[in-house]
Specification:
By secondary structure, the chain is mostly helical. It has helices at about 10-20, 30-40, 50-60, 65-110, 110-140, 145-160, 165-180, 200-210, 220-230, 240-255, 260-270, 280-310, 315-320, 320-345, 355-370, 375-389. The radius of gyration is 20 Å and the shape is globular.
Length: about 400
């Protein structure tokens, strides 16, 4: 039940979600769990069902599940302005971590010591991604049809390259799922509308308008922002599914980073709190400095947060549609296959020596059998690689 003292202030929400952002190591469920503890268990600002509704809606929309859930919670607490404040506060710690790590990487990354560190980290990151794929497959692949969609996604991503491969997989799997998994959607009953509390588009678009207008790099910053904004709307299934989308676009398409730099960026995301999509800051920093990091980060998180706020009051309508549920069932199955392909792609970046598969198996056991958080597994493997490579 909501606290009778009234809605929290924007300042208190900012402080609360800064703490959530700082302590959300280990993937999107970590951030959701920390947020649930802070918002529901400790402060009783919302109920468990409210947070669960946000997670459910975020899981069927594009973009990072955790950040979209943060936007939903902020919207429920203080409208569009609350969503904007909560998202910015939750992303800021991860952004700062990533900019610092990327700056050190670009300055010292070619040193042998740093190379040895990342040689140990790379097999661990492949294990983290494969572990996520395993969990996704257990949930999303429930029969031969889902397995076929997942397998087709793996084959297409490993055998084909280009900007259109990943979007084509998403669209095709949605269309196939629409007909393969048809179900009775039940009666269609519009959900009651919530009273509008602010204009989400204007609030979230403010940084979108300001960021590209920085100095002589305006055109490059606008290109970065538009590219990441477009990618964000194609990223169904959470942060790990975004890896192939990002890779095809920024490595194969624009050539903003090399394959090795992209893999290193994904490794760094495991050392920062928050979502894996914060890797956008690494790419933006490489292309256009701090302004580029801001533009890429704003672009990758803003469109889906706006979409989340816009859909929040239509939650029941989404669940009422059997066609939507069927299409998303196909997308989730293909998404699990896309994550498997991402694990292979990153695994190929590992050093071709005996220690790489040993570290991969060790990391996978720690993650799946002993349930150690990725935040501890990745640095551990990096330290082993540092001393043994």
């Amino acid at each position: 039940m909501r606290d009778e003292a009234g809605p929290p202030s924007l300042a208190s929400l900012c402080a609360l979600f800064l703490r959530v952002g700082c302590s959300s190591f280990g993937g999107y469920m970590s951030m959701v769990s920390v947020m649930q503890n802070a918002v529901v268990a400790q402060r009783k600002l919302l109920t468990d069902q409210d947070v669960l509704d946000g997670v459910t809606l975020a899981s069927i929309l594009p973009g990072p599940v955790a950040i979209n859930t943060v936007a939903y919670v902020g919207y429920r607490l203080r409208g569009a302005m609350g969503a904007c404040v909560c998202v910015c506060a939750a992303v800021l710690p991860a952004f700062v971590f990533m900019v610092v790590l990327a700056s050190l990487y670009f300055r010292w990354g070619r040193l042998p010591q740093i190379d040895r560190l990342f040689m140990g980290i790379m097999p661990a990151v492949a294990a983290v991604v494969l572990g996520a794929a395993w969990r996704m497959c257990r949930v999303s692949v429930r029969g031969w049809r889902e397995a076929l969609l997942a397998g087709a996604a793996v084959v297409l991503l490993l055998c084909c390259s280009g900007l259109l491969v990943t979007p084509a997989i998403v669209v095709a799997s949605a269309l196939v799922g629409r007909f393969w998994f048809r179900e009775d959607g039940g009666a269609y009953a519009p959900a009651p509308r919530q009273q509008a509390r602010g204009n989400a588009g204007i609030l979230f678009a403010t940084p979108l308008v300001l960021v590209p207008l920085v100095g002589a790099q305006a055109a490059l910053l606008a290109k970065l922002l538009a590219a990441f904004a477009g990618m964000s709307l194609l990223m169904f299934g959470g942060g790990y599914v975004s890896i192939p989308v990002l890779q095809h676009t920024v490595v194969d398409g624009y050539g903003w980073v090399t394959g090795r730099e992209f893999a290193d960026a994904m490794a760094m995301t495991q050392l920062t709190p928050g979502p894996v999509l914060i890797g956008a800051a690494f790419i933006g920093l490489k292309v256009a400095g701090i302004a580029g990091a801001v533009a890429a980060t704003v672009g990758v998180f803003t469109p889906t947060a706006v979409l989340m706020v816009g859909c929040a009051h239509r939650l029941n309508r989404w669940y009422a549609s059997g066609a939507v549920r069927a299409a998303l069932r196909g997308v989730r199955a293909a998404g699990a296959g896309m994550v498997v392909a991402a694990a292979f792609a990153i695994g190929k970046m590992a050093a071709p020596v005996w220690l790489s598969p040993v570290l991969f198996v060790l990391a996978l056991l720690l993650l799946l059998r002993w349930r150690v958080e990725a935040f501890w597994v990745v640095p551990l493997c990096g330290a082993i690689g540092y001393f043994l490579f």
